[in-house]
C-alpha cells in the first residue's frame, strides 16, 4: 500500500558478468546481445579475470594470489587499471554502442560514484592496493541513467586521495544495486558458469529455484549449500535486506530474469 | 549587440595537455593543480605519448611510426586502449577527484561523444586503427557539464561499429571545443613545451602575442612561422572560424588564459 502516493519505482536491472565471460570473445558477444535485449534501465558491472594476469606476465610482473585473491602491488595496480579500466571496459562500451545502447564506461573514480578505503592488514596479509567499498553514489548514477545512458562499471574504485584501488566485481555490483535501490525497483543478476544455486553440484537439473533468509539457514545447516556459494548467497540476501528487490544467480547465457535461482 | 535577447553564453575552457607532461609525475601534478584552479566550466583533453610506446615494447610489440605518426595495428590498438583509456585517464580522474574536481573519464565511445571513421589509405600508407573524427556530440557533453562534472577526454574514439580507434589528441581537443561552442563561450588552450608561438625559436622572449587570419598569412609568407607550427595555427584558426571564441597556444605551466599566443 502506497499511502504517500509515491509513484511506483521504475524497474532497473544490474547485471554482473565475470572475467571468464569477458575474456572469451564468443561468450562476451552473446552476453552483450542478451544484455542489450534487457528492456528498460540497466547497468553492467564487469570483472577482469585472467586477462590482467596474462598482461602482467607479458610485462614481466608476477601475479601474487593468496586464497584466490589477488595481491595488488603498485605494478599490478597499473596493470588492472589498464586492463579493467581501459581495454575491457572501453571495448564493451564500443560494442554496446554498436548495438544501439548508449553506454558509458565508469570506474568508481569517475564522478566519484564508488569511494573505497585501502584494505587494512587482514590476518597479517597486506592485500596492497585493494579497496573495500565505503560509499556508492546512487544519485549520480541515477542522473546519468535518466538521460538514457547505460553505465558499464569496471572493478576499480578510488580512495578520494588520488589513488585507484582494485575492487571485487561482485561487491561493486551489490553496492551499485543497493545505491540505486533508493530510486528504482532493482533486480541484481549475478551471472556465472552454473545455471544457479544447485542442490547437487554434479546434477545440472538440481537447481534451487528460490532462496530466502529462512530457507538459506536450512540449506546451510543440512550442508546442501557450502563452500564459495555461501558468501555469494549471503551477499545476495544482504542486498535484498538493503532494498534491492530481488537477486538472481544464473548462467551467463540466461540473464533474462526468468532463469536461475531467485533470492528474495 | 545581442538583438535576440539571447543570454550571453557561459565561459568554458578546454585544455589540451600533451603526452610529455602526462607521463612526468611532477609536471602532471603541476598541470592538474593549475587546471583545478581554472574557474568555471572546463574540459581536459590529454594525449598519451611515449608511455604507450614503452608499454608496447615491454609487451614485445614493435611501435611503427611514419612521419611521426603512429601506425596502429591490432596489438598497438590494445596498448593505446589500455594506456590512454585506462592508466592515464583514470589516474588523472582520481587525482582531480582528490583536488575536489568532479571529473569523469571519457573516450569518444562513451555516450558516443566522438564518432570517427577508420582512416583510409593515404599515399599508400595504412595507418591501421586510426580514427578521423566525423562528429562530436556537444549536447551530451553539455548535459554532463551542467551537472558540475568535468570531462577528462582520452585520445580514443569509436567507429560506431564496435571498434575503438586511436585519435590525435589535438584534433580531439579542437573537435570538442567546436562542438561545445554551440552552448558556451569557449576558450581552447593548447599547452606544450614553449611559451607560445615564437618569432625566433631560439629566443624565449620572442613570443608573438596575437595571431589573426591576416597576420598568419604574413607570418607564413615571410617565414617567421614554419614547420610543425603551421598546422597547429591553421587548426586553431579553423576552430575560431567554427565558433570557438579564442585559442591560446601556451606553455604547460601557464594555462591560466593570460599567457601565450592568442589566436582570434
UniProtKB/TrEMBL annotation, chains A, B:
One short Pfam name that applies is AA_kinase
Alphabetized, the UniProt keywords read:
Amino-acid biosynthesis, Arginine biosynthesis, ATP-binding, Cytoplasm, Kinase, Nucleotide-binding, Transferase
Where does it live in the cell?
A: Cytoplasm
Q: EC class of this enzyme?
A: transferase
Domain of life the protein comes from: Bacteria
Q: Which reaction does it catalyse?
A: N-acetyl-L-glutamate + ATP = N-acetyl-L-glutamyl 5-phosphate + ADP
Q: Where does substrate bind?
A: 48-49, 70, 166
Its EC number is 2.7.2.8
UniProt-listed InterPro entries: AceGlu_kinase-like_sf, AcgluKinase_fam, ArgB, Asp/Glu/Uridylate_kinase
Q: Could you say which residues are annotated as the site Transition state stabilizer? A: 16, 232
Q: Which PANTHER family match?
A: N-ACETYLGLUTAMATE SYNTHASE, N-ACETYLGLUTAMATE SYNTHASE, MITOCHONDRIAL
Function field: Catalyzes the ATP-dependent phosphorylation of N-acetyl-L-glutamate.
Family statement: Belongs to the acetylglutamate kinase family. ArgB subfamily.
Question: What is the protein named?
Answer: Acetylglutamate kinase
Amino acid at each position: 500500500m502506497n499511502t504517500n502516493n509515491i509513484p511506483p519505482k521504475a524497474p532497473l536491472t544490474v547485471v554482473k558478468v565475470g572475467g571468464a565471460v569477458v575474456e572469451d570473445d564468443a561468450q562476451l558477444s552473446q552476453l552483450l546481445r542478451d544484455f542489450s535485449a534487457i528492456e528498460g534501465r540497466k547497468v553492467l558491472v564487469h570483472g577482469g579475470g585472467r586477462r590482467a594476469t596474462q598482461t602482467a606476465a607479458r610485462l614481466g610482473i608476477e601475479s601474487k594470489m593468496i586464497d584466490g585473491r589477488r595481491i595488488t602491488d603498485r605494478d599490478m595496480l597499473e596493470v588492472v587499471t589498464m586492463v579493467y579500466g581501459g581495454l575491457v571496459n572501453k571495448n564493451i562500451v564500443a560494442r554496446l554502442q554498436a548495438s544501439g545502447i548508449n553506454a558509458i564506461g565508469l570506474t568508481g573514480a569517475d564522478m566519484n560514484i564508488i569511494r573505497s578505503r585501502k584494505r587494512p592488514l587482514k590476518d597479517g596479509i597486506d592485500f596492497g592496493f585493494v579497496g573495500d567499498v565505503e560509499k556508492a553514489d546512487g544519485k549520480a548514477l541515477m542522473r546519468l541513467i535518466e538521460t538514457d545512458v547505460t553505465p558499464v562499471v569496471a572493478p576499480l574504485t578510488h580512495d578520494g586521495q588520488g589513488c585507484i584501488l582494485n575492487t571485487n566485481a561482485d561487491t561493486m555490483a551489490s553496492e551499485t544495486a543497493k545505491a540505486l535501490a533508493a530510486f528504482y525497483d532493482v533486480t541484481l543478476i549475478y551471472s556465472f558458469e552454473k545455471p544457479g544455486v544447485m542442490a547437487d553440484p554434479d546434477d545440472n537439473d538440481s537447481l534451487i529455484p528460490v532462496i530466502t533468509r529462512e530457507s538459506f539457514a536450512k540449506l546451510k545447516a543440512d550442508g546442501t549449500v557450502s563452500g564459495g556459494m555461501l558468501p555469494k548467497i549471503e551477499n545476495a540476501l544482504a542486498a535484498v535486506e538493503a532494498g534491492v528487490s530481488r537477486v538472481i544467480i544464473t548462467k551467463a547465457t540466461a540473464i533474462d530474469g526468468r532463469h536461475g535461482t531467485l533470492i528474495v
